[in-house]
Structure to design on (596 residues):
């Protein structure tokens, strides 16, 4: 069970780092990296629970699906950011603000 | 039920999948100016799917694909609602000028994929399907919100949407991983059984996980405090998509919240009428009541000081999410009943209001309250219909909005004296909302200082608004068929 705890701690740390990145960074790419960290922390949890918690394979399956979804999401997000760069000449999420706050 | 047999009950979804693939291929054969014809193919597929759904209606709930998806009257009801909203959206998109001179083939394909995602959302009973369905709907809405690529506002809307959306679904995923760790299963019925065997030492982890999961769900229905994306996305997105986002994914999100929390945390048996397994650990009633109050109050108060009608309608849709959420804390089937009726009636009035805005914007190029000036003199019929929608959104009888609010408020009052305050705040909020809805009516009828009222050219959208106005009025007078339909649909899969 000690192994499980170590993995969970790493997962929680990754989650917090991801949260921190999303909240503090203003560069859209960096925000996206924070989101990827959050997704990977959840993945780590799923796999650790599956492997060490004596549970079935659904954790592994879940992690595979998450990896695929994360890739799709990153592709869409990067396309949107490229479009933003073409229009605003910046990828700073604060500077791209035509819409009223 | 095994995978092969499940396909018998999966007809509507299979037809949607076929439509998506067919539409992508068909899109290759059309020139740019004819790419709107993909919409006709998609429309045919959607209608075929609706017919299949009608024919294959089950009165007995069944679990499909080894228990990861269910087919029950509850999900069928929401599927009809989603299909109805989609049909309106596709038809209105043919005359949407904003989409203008670019390829629109993918636009219709993306909408269809979104429908498939929402179908899974309303019928998911497995954490993997819950996550996948939410992501399918989200990713498609990111692209649709930013569909006007050369438009700065639209692109900015999609940037904000993708950041908020990916962030909140990431947090939800972390919550799901904790739930999986606590229970060792991804099926929500197994989760309930496993949670019942846990002792109180797991309470903290459970509360945290529920909070994280609700972040993802709350973002989908734009509940306060997860609503920040709503005004900007709704203002920047093409109006047809804004109208769609404010109706269909919101209904699907509410259905998911009801099914997920009822099945994973509720006591076995019928609806959440009885006690909750973790009612001691999670103060569901109080939290939901506070969130509902916060959502409708904030939506209404900020809507008061908007100058853009589109943005005002965005805040108004937050407020309406708050009214619907009032059905969640009461833990009774009356609450669910109220939410279901409200979601259905809200579809007509909200789509109608957005479509009239679209007409005005197409003819004047503006979305402000001033753009509506003199509409009552130049096109009285349209102005009267808009007044009907505004009355309905406020909840004044005899309109559909009144019936929706009536059922929600009566569910709250039936829950006992402890909930009277919630109903009172709901009524006060409705009164507040009267102010900003009436601003439009005032602009239309009582301001003719500008030289000539706008002239609205006849288009497909005018016909659609009339079609939407009919149920808005009829269901305000004679709503028994809707009430009966919802009553029969109030069967949720239980294991």
């Amino acid at each position: 069970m000690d192994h499980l705890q170590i993995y969970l701690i790493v997962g929680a740390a990754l989650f917090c780092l991801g949260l921190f990145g999303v909240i503090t960074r203003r560069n859209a790419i960096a925000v996206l990296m924070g989101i990827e960290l959050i997704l990977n922390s959840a993945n780590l949890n799923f796999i650790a629970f599956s492997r060490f918690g004596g549970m079935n394979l659904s954790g592994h399956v879940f992690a595979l699906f998450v990896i695929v979804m994360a890739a799709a999401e990153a592709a869409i997000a990067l396309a949107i950011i490229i479009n933003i760069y073409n229009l605003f000449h910046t990828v700073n999420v604060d500077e791209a603000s035509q819409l009223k706050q | 039920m095994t995978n092969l047999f499940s396909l018998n009950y999966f007809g509507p979804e299979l037809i949607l999948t076929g439509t998506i693939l067919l539409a992508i291929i068909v899109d290759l054969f059309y020139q740019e100016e004819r790419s709107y014809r993909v919409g006709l193919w998609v429309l045919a597929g959607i209608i075929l799917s609706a017919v299949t759904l009608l024919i294959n209606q089950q009165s007995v709930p069944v679990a499909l694909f080894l228990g990861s998806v269910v087919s029950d009257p509850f999900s069928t009801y929401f599927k009809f609602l989603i299909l109805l909203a989609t049909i309106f959206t596709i038809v209105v998109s043919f005359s949407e000028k904003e989409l203008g001179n670019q390829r629109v083939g993918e636009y219709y394909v993306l909408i269809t994929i979104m429908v498939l995602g929402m179908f899974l959302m309303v019928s998911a009973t497995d954490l993997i399907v819950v996550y996948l369905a939410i992501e399918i709907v989200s990713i498609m809405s990111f692209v649709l919100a930013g569909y006007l690529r050369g438009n700065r506002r639209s692109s900015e809307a999609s940037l904000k949407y993708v950041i908020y959306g990916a962030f909140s679904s990431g947090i939800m995923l972390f919550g799901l991983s904790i739930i999986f760790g606590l229970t060792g299963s991804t099926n929500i019925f197994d989760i309930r059984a496993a949670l019942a065997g846990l002792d109180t030492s797991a309470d903290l982890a459970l509360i945290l996980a529920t909070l994280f999961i609700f972040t993802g769900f709350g973002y989908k229905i734009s509940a306060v405090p997860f609503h920040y994306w709503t005004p900007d996305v709704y203002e920047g997105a093409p109006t047809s998509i804004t109208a769609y986002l404010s109706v269909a994914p919101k209904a699907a999100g509410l259905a998911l919240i009801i099914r997920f929390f009822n099945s994973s945390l509720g006591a076995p048996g019928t609806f959440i009428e009885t006690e909750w397994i973790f009612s001691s650990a999670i103060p569901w009633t109080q939290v939901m009541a506070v969130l509902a109050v916060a959502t409708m109050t904030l939506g209404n108060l900020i809507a008061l000081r908007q100058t853009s009608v589109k943005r005002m309608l965005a805040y108004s849709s937050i407020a309406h999410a708050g009214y619907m959420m009032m059905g969640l804390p009461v833990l009774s089937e009356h609450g669910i009943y109220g939410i279901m009726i409200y979601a259905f009636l809200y579809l007509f009035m909200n789509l109608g209001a957005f479509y009239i805005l679209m007409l005005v914007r197409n003819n004047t190029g503006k979305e402000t309250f001033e753009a509506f000036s003199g509409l009552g003199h130049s096109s009285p019929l349209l102005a009267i219909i808009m007044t009907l929608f505004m009355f309905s959104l406020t909840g004044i009888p005899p309109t559909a909005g009144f019936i929706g609010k009536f059922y929600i408020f009566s569910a709250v009052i039936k829950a006992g004296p402890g909930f009277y305050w919630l109903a009172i705040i709901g009524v006060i909020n409705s009164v507040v909302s009267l102010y900003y809805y009436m601003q439009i009516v005032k602009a239309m009828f009582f301001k003719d200082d500008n030289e000539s009222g706008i002239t609205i050219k006849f288009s497909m959208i005018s016909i659609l608004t009339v079609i939407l106005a009919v149920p808005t009025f009829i269901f305000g007078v004679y709503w028994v068929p809707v009430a009966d339909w919802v009553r029969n649909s109030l069967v949720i899969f239980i294991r």
